[in-house]
């Protein structure tokens, strides 16, 4: 008998024998989800959502109104602090979804927005005239950036003072472990705090965050890549080809990628 003929006869017999063996010794079913749980043992699992508490306030700092929003776990114990800095034209309560997610994960979250850069910009003469580009130019200028950092420093100092005085809503916060996150205008401030600056320029604050998140990172038209290379803080930058600036100041959107390329 030829080899091919032998194979044609043997293959059905082998398959049948295998099926018969399986049918004769069925595997007992395991608990529902047992296989899935086994595969997920080494996977990332988000922390349980913690109950949070918070408040919103308007403070007078450096001669201007500043919107301050606070969220933290109800039973905070050594909670790291995240500073969130909204974008141009946004109020202090912006970014509510991710601020709440961070607080529910165990972080204290402070949002700070000087009112001149918040919703009030839409009532300015430039906005009423439809001249948004010059409005953005003034808001992103170096002098305005320095003023925002100064306001942030004063807000932090006030909160630390209140925490030391025993204010219950500020209890359990680790004021030394601090990260910063910002969107648009806030991303410019966050990048400066993380170390971005031109050659020879002094550090903008007496401290540096442990990490930084830049949502729609700001890159000026004339910015050189060396200033981004001075960022030594662990950093997450998020942008994309449709990350457009409604004020028409950062054009084209691909310009935002220069920050990442210059790190």
UniProtKB/TrEMBL annotation:
<keyword id="KW-0732">Signal</keyword>
<dbReference type="InterPro" id="IPR029058">
    <property type="entry name" value="AB_hydrolase_fold"/>
</dbReference>
<feature type="signal peptide">
    <location>
        <begin position="1"/>
        <end position="20"/>
    </location>
</feature>
<protein>
    <recommendedName>
        <fullName>Alpha/beta hydrolase</fullName>
    </recommendedName>
</protein>
């Amino acid at each position: 008998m030829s080899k091919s003929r032998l194979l044609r006869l043997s293959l059905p017999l082998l398959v049948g024998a295998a099926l018969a063996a399986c049918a004769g010794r069925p595997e007992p079913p395991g608990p529902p989800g047992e296989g899935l749980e086994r595969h997920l043992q080494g996977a990332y699992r988000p922390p349980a959502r913690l109950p949070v508490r918070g408040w919103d306030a308007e403070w007078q700092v450096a001669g201007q109104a500043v919107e301050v929003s606070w969220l933290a776990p109800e039973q905070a114990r050594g909670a790291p602090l995240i500073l969130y800095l909204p974008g141009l034209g946004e109020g202090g309560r912006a970014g509510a979804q991710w601020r709440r997610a961070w607080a529910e994960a165990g972080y204290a979250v402070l949002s700070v927005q000087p009112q001149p850069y918040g919703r009030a910009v839409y009532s300015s003469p430039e906005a009423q005239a439809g001249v948004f580009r010059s409005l953005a130019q003034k808001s992103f200028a170096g002098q305005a950036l320095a003023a925002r950092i100064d306001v942030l420093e004063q807000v932090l100092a006030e909160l630390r003072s209140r925490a030391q005085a025993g204010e219950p809503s500020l209890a359990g916060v680790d004021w030394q472990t601090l990260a910063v996150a910002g969107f648009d205008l806030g991303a410019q401030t966050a990048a400066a705090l993380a170390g971005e600056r031109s050659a020879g320029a002094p550090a903008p604050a007496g401290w540096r965050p442990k990490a930084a998140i830049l949502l729609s990172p700001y890159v000026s038209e004339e910015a050189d890549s060396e200033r981004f290379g001075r960022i030594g803080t662990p950093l997450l930058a998020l942008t994309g080809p449709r990350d457009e600036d409604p004020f028409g100041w950062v054009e084209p959107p691909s310009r935002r990628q220069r920050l990442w390329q210059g790190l």
